[in-house]
Design brief:
- 74% of the residues lie in helices and 2% in strands.
- By secondary structure, it is mainly alpha-helical.
- It has 2 domains: 286 residues, MFS general substrate transporter like domains (Growth Hormone, Chain: A, Up-down Bundle), CATH 1.20.1250; 87 residues, no CATH class.
- The protein has a two-stranded antiparallel sheet with strand order 1-2.
- A hairpin with a 6-residue loop joins strand 1 and strand 2.
- 35% of the residues are buried.
């Protein structure tokens, strides 16, 4: 029953994540989009805390209800989603692709036009969406092969695939799924103690992730990702040294309490380092990197590589911890060093621009110029208040709607 349930959940959860993250990014007001898409992933910790607290409470029940209660309560989030999903507005960008422009404009007016000059902003925003999406669809065959069609798409695909691996191969699954084994390695074998640590880590992670999500409009994406990877590398190196001291002392028959405390400290220190990039920024970045026509496919690729990486580490982590002990952490140190290099050379900056402006961030200058001309032509017909802002050759051309600023 549990195996079949996991299969069903494994199909349903990524489907909800792909559609949910895309919808939030496409519905959100431009200035609020980074925060809302960041909070989308932060909400994971709310569920983790509830699940950890329920399991902690039912752990003391001395019959089958110890596992039946947590299993049955999993129905509640799905019922909540089924009840409210019908009240959600549709993505205006999706409506535009279906020739339902008036519905798209009405949704934008309702959710983005709630200030004095809102209608001017909505007109410019709607025109920009129309122009760029038309150009995207013109150049797209709307198939999975489009992900390999151009150099820009192939780079998007590479960044997305590696980010999927990074979110699961950065040592987080070691803490999430094998915290009990890690605590046993430093002499903490009491199940109540382990569950208390688990709940406290979940609460601490929620605090860290929420704090970082509030800063995404102030700190550039590349800076946050580089800070994330570098701090993770330093944290894992320190954790590895502490674990070596702790296990060496334990093997000698004289436990090193200072090393044990240091291991526990770095397990907690890991949370702000990881959440800085691989939680708060994950879907914010995915929504910004991919143009509308391929956004859902791009996030699906991210989910695929993340799930494959999670599947791999779920089975490899216990073998590594059992066979080589603290030395297994060295493999994560090496991988995290690679992440630093990859992020530095391959991750583009996406902060401060609309989704339409980012649609051609990876493409050549000729295609970017064509997009700019299309936007300028359509917006000129609407009377939208738009100004040109010349950028470096790397950033191509960009347009800002004044109301956004």
């Amino acid at each position: 029953m549990y195996i079949v349930a996991r299969m069903i959940l494994g199909f349903g959860i990524p489907t909800c994540i792909v559609s949910g993250s895309s919808l939030i990014g496409e519905l959100a007001f431009p200035k609020e989009r980074p925060i809302l898409t960041s909070l989308f992933n932060v909400a994971y910790f709310v569920g983790q805390i509830i699940a950890a607290a329920i399991c902690f409470g039912t752990n003391k029940i001395d019959n089958d209800w110890a596992w039946r209660i947590p299993s049955l309560l999993q129905i509640c989030p799905s019922l909540l989603q089924i009840s409210f999903v019908f009240f959600l507005p549709e993505s205006p960008r999706w409506l535009i692709t279906k020739d339902r422009g008036q519905e798209a404009f009405d949704i934008l007016t309702k959710y983005h036009g709630e200030f004095d000059k809102g209608i001017e902003f909505v007109q410019a925003e709607f025109a920009q969406m129309n122009a760029v999406i038309s150009l995207e669809l013109e150049a797209s065959k709307r198939s999975w092969l489009d992900l390999f069609a151009t150099a820009g798409m192939r780079r998007r695909l590479l960044v997305t695939s590696m980010l999927g691996l990074f979110t699961q191969w950065s040592g987080n699954t070691l803490i999430s799924y094998y915290l009990g084994d890690l605590l046993k390695m430093i002499g903490q074998t009491d199940s109540d103690y382990q569950q208390k640590i688990n709940v406290s880590i979940a609460c601490w992670s929620l605090f860290c992730a929420f704090t970082v999500s509030m800063l995404v409009t102030r700190i550039r994406r590349r800076v946050m990702y580089l800070a994330c990877t570098i701090s993770l590398l330093l944290c894992y190196i320190s954790w590895t040294v502490s674990m070596e001291r702790a296990q060496t002392a334990a093997s000698a028959g004289s436990p090193n309490q200072a090393a044990n405390i240091a291991v526990l400290f770095f397990i907690y220190a890991y949370s702000p380092c990881y959440n800085m990039g691989y939680n708060a920024l994950t879907y914010t970045y995915m929504v910004e990197v991919w143009p509308y026509a391929e956004r859902s496919r791009g996030i699906a690729v991210f989910q695929l590589f993340g799930r494959l990486a999670g599947f791999f580490t779920t089975f490899v982590n216990p073998i590594g911890l059992k066979d080589v002990g603290w030395k297994y952490l060295i493999s994560y140190c090496c991988w995290l060093a690679f992440e630093v290099v990859f992020v530095y050379f391959m991750f583009p900056e996406t902060m401060g621009r609309t989704l339409e402006e980012l649609a051609f961030i990876f493409e050549d200058k000729e295609l970017a110029d064509k997009a700019v001309q299309a936007v300028e032509k359509v917006i000129g017909h609407t009377g939208g208040d738009v100004e040109e802002r010349p950028l470096s050759s790397e950033k191509k051309h960009s347009y800002d709607v004044k109301a956004v600023n």
